Amino acid sequence: MFRFRSSTASLILCCSAVSAITTVAINAFYGNRFEPTSAVIATESAETSDTSGIFNADGLTPEEVVNTEVYLAVNRSVVNITAKAVRGVLLELQAEGSGSGSVLDKEGHVLTNYHVIEGSKTVSVTLANGESYDATPVGADPVNDIAIIKVDAPPEELHPVVFGDSRRLKVGMRVFALGNPFGLERTLTTGIISSLNRSLQIHSNRTIKSIIQIDAAINPGNSGGPLLDAHGRLIGMNTAIATTTGQSAGVGFAIPVNLVARVVPQLLAHGRVIRPEIGITRVYETEKGLLIAQLKPNGPAEKAGLRGPKLTKSRRGPFTIERLDRSVADLIVAVDNSKVTTADDFLGYIEDKRPGEEVVLTVVREGKKQKVLVTLSVSEPIDRVGDE
């Protein structure tokens, strides 16, 4: 379980770290305090006869019909993922975590969160039929917390999820979360979309935008599971909760399906997302803009003539003193005439481009504004599945 502390709550990526799954003995706790419902129905039938028109032939309300139909349509598309890793240097300890995933196709590709399988040595997937299969990594995008693994299972046992469109979502829409909280396979919870276009910081201080906020209960083990609309279509991937207790508090977050749909083809084709590279490896955020702190040697920015800090050396007697002069570094104030004030905004703008495209940076150099044309190159991989 991964926590991100704030002043009021923790943000927990909902993958469950477990060493064993304990049987939930509900009957042992409640005893015989629940009476057969038939007696209750019989005594209240006269009082409720005037509302019988809202029930269908199975005694379900329209809302219950939607709930059951969504579950019947999609539950076989949800898998349970168990990831095992070895921790420690001198003393090796086995660590095990669990999460959820969605079947993408009949070839055995499974969608999940990167943090579910991050650092794992072995990964196994349990399908709806109860059969478990060893999984192999296909690709990962740590920046967006998305990964794809593959199982060699019979096509008839694989039931792909249907993609929806997260652009059509509205606050207040009903949603359905399917997953394996605490190892309880294919658990359904319901709720609504509480907000849209949230930002969520996941990996290396990088922020995912357009996050979906929901109040459907998601807990450790739900990570990587599908968020569905009332038609049973995938609209997001459950990834985190905000909580002060470690359990669901009605504030959950899901990665929008349109982001998933953009990333998945690249992971299937290349094993990673091929992003544009500008060659600026570090900046300082200031009130006036982004001060370049470090350039990639021979990278696009350096080739375009952008300037970073200059290392100066001076002698004092027998000693050589080195000093980093930041006053000569360029201050970035805009990209393609769009003002930028944070490193995340800057990176987000660059990543919307493609390798080979050009961007115009407006920089302040020696007190004067000037524009610099930079041709973007191909970025290097950030991480790979299973790397430590």
Task: Tell me about this structure.
The protein has 388 residues and is of the alpha+beta class. The chain has two domains: 1-22 and 58-273, Thrombin, subunit H (Beta Barrel); 276-378, Roll (Pdz3 Domain), CATH 2.30.42.10. It is 16% helix and 41% strand. It is built from seven helices and 25 strands. The protein has helices spanning 26-30, 37-48, 62-74, 114-117, 257-270, 300-304, 343-351; strands spanning 2-5, 10-13, 16-17, 78-87, 93-103, 109-112, 122-126, 132-141, 146-151, 174-179, 187-203, 206-214, 226-228, 234-243, 252-256, 276-277, 280-285, 290-295, 310-316, 319-325, 331-335, 338-339, 358-365, 368-375, 377-378. The strands form five sheets. Strands 10-11-12-15-14-13 form a six-stranded antiparallel barrel. Strands 4-5-6-9-8-7 form a six-stranded antiparallel barrel. A hairpin with a 2-residue loop joins strand 19 and strand 20 (319-325). The model is unreliable at 1-9, 18-48 and 383-388 (pLDDT under 50).
Arithmetic mean of pLDDT: 81
Principal-axes shape call: elongated
Distance between the termini: 17 Å
Number of helical elements: 7
Strand content: 35-45%
Number of strands: 25
Strand order of the largest sheet: 10-11-12-15-14-13
Described by strand count, sense and barrel closure, the largest sheet is: 6 strands, antiparallel, barrel
CATH topology of the largest domain: Thrombin, subunit H
Domain tally: 2
Residues in helix, % = 10-25%
Radius of gyration: 26 Å
Low-confidence stretches: 1-9, 18-48, 383-388
What is the level 1 CATH name of the largest domain?
Mainly Beta
Based on secondary structure, the structural category is alpha+beta
CATH architectural group of the largest domain:
Beta Barrel
